[in-house]
Structure formats: structure tokens, C-alpha cells
Amino acid sequence: MLKKSILTLGALALAAGVRAQSINYVTEIVTTYRGLWQSANAGTVSSVTNNIQPDSSHYLLAFSANGKRYSTGVSDKRLTDKGITFTAGEYRALPVSALSAEPTSLTKIGLGQLYDKVDNGASNPPPVRDLARYLSDGPNGLDLGTGVANIPAGLLTFTAGKVQQAAINDGVPDILVTQFADPAGSSDVYSFLDADGVVVGKAVTVTYGSSFPIVGRWLADFYEGSQNPMTLASSFTKTPRDLRLWTADFSDFGVVPADYNRIAKFQIKLSGSSDVAFVAYNSRALTVLPVELTSFRGRAHADGQVQLTWRTASERNAEAFVVEASSDGETFAPVGRVAAAGTVSTSTDYSFWHRPAAASLLYYRLHQLDFDGRSAYSPVVIMAPDKASATQVFPNPFVDQLACTFPRGTTGQAELLSVTGKALHHRHFTTDELRTGACTLDKLPTLPAGLYLLRITVDGRTTLRKVQRGEQAVAK
What we know:
There is one protein chain. The protein is mainly beta. The protein is about 5% helix and about 45% strand. It has helices at about 75-80, 130-135, 430-435, 470-475; strands at about 5-10, 25-30, 35-40, 60-65, 70, 90-95, 95-100, 110, 145-150, 155-160, 160-165, 175-180, 185-195, 200-205, 215-225, 240-250, 265-270, 275, 280, 285-290, 290-300, 305-315, 320-325, 335-340, 350-355, 360-370, 375, 380-385, 390-395, 400-405, 410-415, 425-430, 440, 450-460, 460-470. The chain is elongated and about 95 Å long.
């Protein structure tokens, strides 16, 4: 028997109002199948009232939990045209960041049996073998007709983002998870993590036992996920499977308002029997960058140019990166654009060169654009472009003093700055120093260990150098 489970939505309580497992059961779903398909009457938890079983891709339009029906934003107009009332919402699939284990012989890709328009048979050519793709495909990533069954035991990690504080404990579901086959009594552990992998709040364990309500049934073909190309599993062709969903609020995970900017990931500790179509989030409550940015760096070159490099671990529906620069860290303007990879589950490297108009402190950020109009910003990189290769600063890191060499001139000065541009130390060069092109900066203020900038100006020509004050200075 294929052991699977589908849409894990942060669900609500049973009809009796009793909460279980810190989650809420979804009691009804509405999808796009044959124009519009309604699984059950809102409020029921154990009976399936629609005998029609979807057999191809169909996208989640709405779901009911805790006595309310919420739209997902896929097509509110379709719901309205059919006379279905709802509370407007916007839900999207979380982008897959990593799967810790390789598919096994038990791992299956579940597709609506007419997904390929072949009745009761295999696709030719076979479906693409891409597990992450089937966990985030369709409008808003909410295709209930595709998914991965028996995901190997281990960790399934999704990219998350900053929480809107007002959304915590507001009664509106924040997480929507899916199980689309046979749960077989398995248990999975769900949690929010920070950037270092530390649990934010608390983990929630969900057991998919016989008491977990069914909201609908569908017909699926299951392909061997461990094979490439994939072959159709003969024992699981045109087979009916159950749909189960649940939802949860941030507060069900112990997330409090002070945690709003700590969350970076959502993770499932898998039992090995999990069957996931997607894990969705309330995009009005959680900001998720369509790409998982793993690095963003800058390097100043002696010819005055700045090379910016960045890497993504995955991308979903990503259109482009707009590179923006600022002289004050507050007002940014575009300086270039780089096309994104679109939708990929592997790492991608990017590079962009910029020649600043003047040698000064510069701030850079990426404005990531999505094809559906969404956008997000990267962290800021601070750069000090080099204009005079003859300028050298040592030692670096420094403790009590700095020595520097520079092009000789008639007038000049040195300034020690914080990385935000605040002046910390300043003095003019003497005639002898300007004649020899060398000086020593002592009598520096007491400063904590960290990164600073040294700005040297000779005859109107400015050079910025990054300098590090070492830990030894703090000990003194």
C-alpha cells in the first residue's frame, strides 16, 4: 500500500471545536478542476460529499477552516462568479531550499492520472524528474494534482522570511500544509528556523492517523522518483487517494512578535511516509523572497571598478536582479540589471561590474523581481572603491596606529570613518609627509574591534580603504 499524505495546511479544529496537535483541520477545499470543484460542505470533517475525483492538475482556490472559508488568491473572480462567499486571502507555496536525503525505491512522484492526457497509462516521454518542481508548481505554486509521495526520511527545508507582527495570533491561518495519499499513522515534525538553523518558538508534531479528516479524493498515477527517466509504478496507476489538509497560526508554533525578523526557514522532519503536494504560506503575513540568496559580496579593484557577485540556492519564477547603489545607505538608484534563471532548484552564480562616478563610500543592494509582480530586497553590501593603487595601509588589522603610503602631492588629509561614514579621527598631512608620500597615524581614539574605513585625499584625489581593528585593541 502506497503510504502518502498531502496538503498540510495549518488547519483548525474539528466540528466540535476541539483542537488537536496544535493545528486546525481543513474541512473543505475548492479547486479549479473542471472550472470549479468543491470537495465538501464547510463544517463537515469526516464525510466527502463530492463523488467526482479530480484526475489532473487542479489549483487550490479556497479552503475552509475554523468555520471560515479563505481564498488563496489564485482566482477570486472564479469563486465570486460561482456565488461562493469567502474571506479574501493570498497563499503561495514555500520555495524548496533543500532535501537532505536522496529518493529511495519507495519515493514516488504523484501526478493526476490525466496530467499527461494519457488515460490509465504512462507518459511518453516520461515526466521530468524534479522533486522540488512538483512541490511548488501551478499558479501560486498551489497545484493539488502533483506532489511527492514517501519523501525519504530526513529534512525537507523551505525558504521563509520576515513575519508581519500583526499576523501573529490574529486567527487567520499562516501556514497551509498538504498530504495527498495514505498517511498510515505517520508523524512529522514541523518548525520555523532562524538563519543558523535554530528553532524559533517550538516544533509542532502532526500525526496522520485514522482520525485525521479527509476532505476529498483524487485519481493519481505514481512514478518511480528514484529513477531517471521515471517509470510508471504499475501497482499505482489510476489509483484513488485521499486529500488531507491542516492550517496553523504562527502562535501555534510559539512564535511571538519579538521573533518577527528571526525566521528564515520552515522545515519538516520527515518520517519517510509523507506525501506533500505543497506547503503554503499566507503572503500577507510572511514575506518570502522568490529566490534563496546564499551570498552577496563586493570586491573593489584598483582601476576603480566594483565587482558584485551573488549566488542563489534556488529560484522560483524569478525574472531579474536590479542592482541598486547609494552614497548614503538610504536613497538607492538602479545602476544595472541582470536576468535571473527563472525557476531552478540548483545553485546559480551571478556577477555585475560597476564603475562609480567618484571614489566614495558606496552601498549596494539587489532588488529581486518576480514574473508575477512581487519583489524583495537583499541585505546591503558596503564598498569602498579603490581609485589610487599606490595607496597602501598597514598593518591591517591594526591595534594602536596605522601607517600609509600614497601618491605624493601638495595638499592632503586622512580620515578614519565608521562603516556608516561617521568621522572618528582626522588630521592634515604635513609638508614632509606629502613630499615623501608616507605617514603614520597615531593618537587614534579608543575604538571597539571591528571594521572601519580610512579615507585619504591628496590634491583632490580620494582613496577609501577598509581597515580592521583587532581584538587585541579591546584587551587594552
